[in-house]
Amino acid sequence: MLKQESKILLRPLIFWEGFPACGLLLKKVADELGEDLVVVATKPAVPFLGLEEELGHKIIWLNEPNEIWSRRDEFSDRNFVLHTGWGHGDWLKFDRFLKKKNNVKIVLVSDNRFRNDFRQWLGAIYFRFFLRRYFDGAFTPGISGKKLLAFLGMPKDHIYSPNYGAYEGIFKSTRQINERRNEFLFVGQLIKRKSIDLVIQAFKEYKLEGGRWSLRISGDGPLAALCEGGAIFLEGFLQPNEVAERMNNAKAFIFPSRDDNWGTALCEAAACGMLLVSAKSTGASFDILTDEENGYLLEKITKEDIKRAMFRIERMSNEELASGSAESIRVAGRFDSGAYYEAFKKMQNDLCD
Predict the structure, then answer these.
(1) Has residue 197 been placed in a domain?
(2) C-alpha angle with apex 145: 218 to 275, nearest 5 degrees?
(3) d(Cα 302, Cα 332) in Å, to the nearest integer?
(4) Most buried of 86, 256, 290, 291, CB within 10 angstroms?
(5) Number of structural domains the chain divides into
């Protein structure tokens, strides 16, 4: 139990920038701490209907992240803070304010993946000399995020995960894989970074070469006009429960982003028992996808590689599909609200006691 195990009365504040569906991983923590927990957030680009009712906890909404400084007195009694990123200067001012007042423990929440590029090398210098002193710990989704935070200079034993995942109240398997449509599913923004252009090119060639499955696309964006043609079904942005329904009616999830820090949709699809196609440029691939077990990990993001993965999945036997689906469900279970709760409890015990 969170309250009973702590030597102090825990009064946490958790800030989510653009509160996503995976923010519902907070639910077990919120249920246990009740009014002792303060949840602060900014609105997501696509509103999540019924979010607070599903969470069962009040959310205090900011117009923009740096509004925290003008409202600092509302939260001056907090003694354990988790907040998104280090790019908002007024959150760092708020950290200093609380440390001076309450000797508060601050946990940095970051989903950035390790890229080992020049920018991250510069960032490591800046973090070690100017930012490290603000943070007592860090919270990240998985393997790649842990690697980056250790590279930046955070002690490995103060890096915790997972802070992202699939909320099992919405994303869960409700239909056996072999009872689903022969359908590939894409969920996300229709932009080049998400590789929707390559997915469409690959699928059209797949159909010309005799591919029998269809493609469903859920999302919106400037490349929506590309998503036309036979056996392609285009929908706009859907609410999370609608996305989960689509995931339980399709067999394979296509998510070959050119750059995605983690990619919660990959974990949500796995929780729904889907076969997965993704790439190393998506952080969640290192945590969720095992090549040739529950899908295919692309070495390169090309239309030829995506098309090849489509054909490989189409040719899988019912037994192989069932085995891959079961593996996806098993792995996604490591990223549910129970896992978030255990990580939060460990942070509390390590840092607050």
Answers:
(1) yes
(2) 40
(3) 27
(4) 256
(5) 2
| One domain for residues 298 and 341 | no
Instruction: Indicate the Cα dihedral angle 108, 109, 111, 114, nearest 10°.
Output: 20
Structural domain containing residue 129 = 2-165+336-352
Domain holding 241: CATH number?
A: 3.40.50.2000
- pTM attached to this predicted model: 0.94
> Residue 30 is part of a domain; what is its CATH number?
3.40.50
% of the chain residues with pLDDT over 90: 84
C-alpha–C-alpha distance, residues 104 and 76, integer Å: 10
Mark whether 295 and 190 lie in a shared domain. Answer: yes
Pair 78, 227 in one domain: no
Q: Say if residue 316 is in the same domain as residue 203.
A: yes
Same domain membership, residue 29 and residue 143: yes
CA dist 98 and 218 (Å) reads 42
CA distance readout (Å), 183 to 12, 71, 231, 312? 44, 49, 9, 13
**Residue 142, CB-side half-sphere exposure with 13 Å CA sphere:** 21
Span 328-351, pLDDT tens digits: 999 999 999 999 999 999 999 999
Model confidence at 272: pLDDT above 90: yes
CB atoms within 10 A of CB 318: 10
Higher-scoring residue by pLDDT: 124, 69? 69
Supply the pLDDT for residue 353. Answer: 67
Q: Rounded CA gap, 56 and 326, in Å? A: 30
- Identify whether 136 is part of a domain: yes
C-beta of residue 142 within 8 angstroms of C-beta of residue 260: no
User: Where residue 26 falls among pLDDT bands split at 50, 70, 90?
Assistant: very high
**What pLDDT does residue 173 have?**
98
- Res 62: pLDDT: 96
The first and second tokens of residue 35, run together, are 């009014």
- Cβ neighbours of residue 330 closer than 8 Å, sequence gap 6 or more: none
pLDDT in tens, 66-104: 999 999 999 999 999 999 988 899 999 999 999 988 889
Q: Which residues of 13-48 are buried (b: 16+ CB within 10 A; e: fewer)?
A: bbbbbebbbbbbbbbbbbebbeeebbbbbbbeebeb
Verify that 98 and 116 share a domain, yes or no: yes
